[in-house]
Design brief:
Helix content: 25-40%
Strand content: 15-25%
Distance between the termini: 50 Å
Strand order of the largest sheet: 4-3-5
Order of helices and strands: EEHHEEEHHHEE
Number of strands: 7
Structural class: alpha+beta
Length: about 140
């Protein structure tokens, strides 16, 4: 049975609808992003099997670092540290132009979180996701 939570208006939502398997893998391997986690209440985390919402009772582990942070879209935009409207414009411009260098990026098949995570890693850390190796790689521009 899939995990579900009560969303707004009491409707049940599938938790995994929030995070694709690819996103979980990408963000779990993004050490730079994981290092920025502050373990705030309301943050989502992955324990290797399912996502957890960090709340008053914690994560159910004696060591919260056993879990990988799953940033939301808001968290990812906050990592850009700019004005949200400007960051949104640059992100969409990047989707339309710059990402053509990265052959794995397919705006028809990637989730918005996957695309934004890729943009944050590109913009802040000069890295790109290699889908064959399933790891982040330094971008070498000649």
């Amino acid at each position: 049975m899939p995990l579900s939570i009560k969303g707004r208006g009491g409707k049940k939502e599938e938790i995994m609808d929030r995070f694709t398997e690819t996103y979980i893998e990408m963000v779990s391997k993004a050490k730079e992003i994981q290092d920025l986690c502050k373990h705030n209440k309301g943050d989502w985390f992955w324990n290797g099997e399912k996502p957890y919402l960090y709340c008053k009772s914690g994560l159910g582990s004696s060591n919260p670092h056993d879990y990988k942070w799953l940033p939301t879209l808001e968290d990812l935009f906050n990592l850009l540290e700019g004005k949200p409207i400007e960051d949104t414009w640059y992100f969409y411009k990047w989707i339309a132009t710059e990402n053509q260098k990265f052959t794995w990026v397919n705006t028809d098949k990637q989730s918005i979180k996957e695309l934004l995570l890729h943009y944050v890693m590109f913009d802040k850390f000069n890295k790109s996701w290699n889908p064959e190796k399933k790891e982040w790689e330094e971008i070498n521009e000649h």
